[in-house]
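tokens incoming
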């Protein structure tokens, strides 16, 4: 798979987790592709931490509106009934428990559901943004992430980067597989047909448990 195919596989699979009525926050990067792959007939409310609820699909080139951007500065368009507001109100929505699902990227995640997604070694970063609030203020956290970074494992036995939050991740979706984080450990429930168990194991530092009901990855 090339980079675009990888990102599409992940976004399509994560979109299948969303159900009618869900209020969903999309983190910067790959998660912002998810509105383009929502199943037909599924009606969700998409929230952006910079102050918008009711995000529609990514606009076509040339049809961007400079007044509407997501938390990463990417172009978005409002869905019917959308509302905009200040950052304080946006975080009150998150901290008040009104967001059902957060979909975030990751630099590292480990066997305990710990997430590191803000501090890139050797680079200046302004801080962790809203990720800490999203991890602790929503009912379910899904990571939409590439399985490795330049061949190095991102799913670890223990994160080596500073944590954004501890024990908050529920599910990991990569181009290779779907993993549920349980009290027993990391349970692989689906594998993409292009990969084998051995491929997944070799690309992962953490110990994996393969579900007895292992299925091909949905798309």
């Amino acid at each position: 798979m090339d980079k675009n195919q990888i990102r599409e596989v992940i976004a399509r699979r994560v979109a299948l987790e969303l159900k009618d009525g869900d209020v969903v926050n999309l983190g910067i990067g790959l998660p912002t592709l998810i509105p383009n792959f929502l199943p037909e007939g599924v009606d969700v409310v998409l929230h952006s931490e910079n102050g918008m609820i009711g995000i529609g699909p990514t606009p076509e080139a040339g049809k961007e509106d400079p007044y509407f951007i997501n938390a990463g500065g990417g172009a978005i368009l409002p869905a019917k009934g959308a509302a905009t507001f200040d950052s304080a109100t946006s975080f009150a929505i998150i901290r008040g428990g009104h967001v059902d699902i957060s979909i975030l990227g990751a630099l590292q995640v480990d066997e305990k559901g710990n997430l590191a997604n803000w501090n890139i070694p050797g680079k200046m970063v302004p801080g962790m943004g809203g990720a800490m609030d999203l991890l602790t203020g929503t009912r379910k956290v899904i990571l939409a992430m590439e399985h490795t970074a330049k061949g190095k494992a991102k799913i670890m036995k223990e994160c080596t980067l500073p944590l954004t939050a501890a024990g908050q991740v529920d599910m990991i979706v990569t181009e290779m597989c779907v993993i549920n984080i349980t009290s027993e450990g990391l349970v692989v429930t689906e594998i993409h047909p292009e990969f084998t168990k051995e491929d997944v194991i070799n690309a992962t530092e953490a110990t994996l448990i393969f579900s007895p009901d292992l299925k091909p990855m949905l798309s």
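note: The chain has a mean pLDDT of 92.
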